[in-house]
Amino acid sequence: MKPSEINSKWKALQEKISQEFDSDFPDLKVMLFLIGVQELGKGPKKYSKRQKEELMHIATCRLLSEMGFYELEGLDQDGWPHWKLVKAIPPYTMLEQELLMKSLVVSYFEDIYS
Question: If you write DSSP's letter for every residue of the chain in order, what string do you get?
């Protein structure tokens, strides 16, 4: 996708999530948190700050697995997924990282909403 297409789809996704959750427009961190909760599969509940960070890490690994950077190792005794890095991630600029993550988030939610 071109950057303009990614940004257009990103804005549309923000609007959809904002309406669905009756909240402000979610930023990238909020989107990663939502994906992490979805991937954990335990539903919405109260999470500690550390657990929220871990949920965003789960989401990041899940999204980057689509590009072959991470692979799911399995679940721990509490049912939390663990990922391993299988291919070095290129040194993207901050702008490239943000665009890449937005693109992966958009694709992730397209699969859910379609």
Answer: --HHHHHHHHHHHHHHHHHHHTSSPP-HHHHHHHHHHHHHTS-S----HHHHHHHHHHHHHHHHHTTTSEEEEEE-TTS-EEEEE-SPPP---HHHHHHHHHHHHHHHHHHHH-
